[in-house]
Design goal:
By secondary structure, the protein is of the alpha+beta class. It folds into two domains: 137 residues; 135 residues, Cathepsin D, subunit A, domain 1. It has a six-stranded mixed barrel. β1 and β2 form a beta hairpin. It is elongated, with a radius of gyration of 25 Å.
């Protein structure tokens, strides 16, 4: 018989373990949101066994708790990705439970009646499998080329990591300049505060705010562009600014810097996308 405090502790550790495995397999960063989400899940599971609260243990309620945990750990990423992460979380939870039962069944005489030894063996086997899957995933993934990118706009400079993306060959139809897509948050110090805040929403929704932020400043008004681009598999309208850019090791050149409010890399490995043409132009000449 498992006591209530043991049930809470086991659920807390199990939820933390499967959430950490989810983050590991998604190549995301570990953070304090994992224990917070694990505490929410453990509290939910424990409350569901109490008299009068057993309706919390229904299928819909359990899935809702899983969605909440995934959202707490992975943040805003769209419903499709959220549901994919929920499915992976359920598979990981089933794998951990299966390995724990397997350990209990094979070595019940050695592990004793306490649930912790069997759970500990199952957790070790589980994390070994997760780590092996992550290493295999990393070894088979296509190698990404990430380079430092320096951008300059109206006398202000910013430095960020950029992924050299063979699919990022877009050009501004008016000027023919290459387009660089960057996360708005990564260039906070580059932009005036009012313009930075206006660019925090989808372009077509925030167009009036962006126009108001640029009003009265001829340099911003002449610099602004509105382009439809495909980034990270999604087509979206983005505001762009005429700027100067340089992939370190190359020379500075005019670009259109398009700013997106979305994250381009879930793990934070890069904050901009550049085309190979920027790396080829003047490569090795310095500046």
């Amino acid at each position: 018989m498992v006591s209530l405090d043991q049930l809470l502790a086991i659920n807390l550790v199990a939820d933390g373990l499967v959430l950490a495995a989810l983050v590991r397999l998604r190549s995301d960063r570990f953070s304090l949101r994992i224990p917070l989400a694990a505490l929410v899940g453990a509290a939910w599971a424990t409350l569901a066994v109490l008299p009068g609260l057993r309706e919390l243990g229904g299928l819909v309620q359990e899935l809702s708790a899983g969605l909440l945990m995934v959202w707490l750990v992975r943040g805003r990423q769209g419903w499709r990705r959220l549901l994919q992460d929920l499915l992976l979380l359920l598979l990981l939870a089933a794998a951990l439970a299966g390995l724990t039962l397997l350990a209990q069944g094979i070595a019940s005489s050695v592990l004793g009646r306490s649930p912790w030894p069997a759970f500990g063996v199952g957790a070790v086997l589980f994390w070994t499998a997760v780590e092996g899957a992550h290493r295999w995933q990393d070894s088979t993934a296509p190698r990404r080329e990430i380079r430092p990118l320096e951008v300059r706009w109206q006398g202000r400079r910013g430095l960020l990591w950029a992924l050299v993306d063979t699919g990022c060959e877009a050009t501004d139809p008016l000027s023919g300049l290459p387009v660089v897509v960057a996360e708005r948050a990564a260039l906070r110090k580059l932009l005036p505060r009012r313009l930075y805040e206006a660019l925090g929403r989808p372009a077509l929704v925030a167009s009036a705010d962006v126009a108001a932020a640029a009003e009265g400043d001829d340099r911003i008004e002449r610099s602004l562009r509105l382009l439809q681009l495909r980034t990270v598999g999604e087509a979206e309208w983005l505001f762009g600014l005429r700027a100067q850019g340089r992939v370190l090791g190359g020379k500075e050149q005019p670009i259109v810097l398009c700013l997106t409010p979305r994250r381009l890399s879930s793990e934070g490995a890069f904050a901009a996308l550049v085309g190979p043409q920027m790396c080829r132009m003047g490569e090795g000449t310095g500046s």
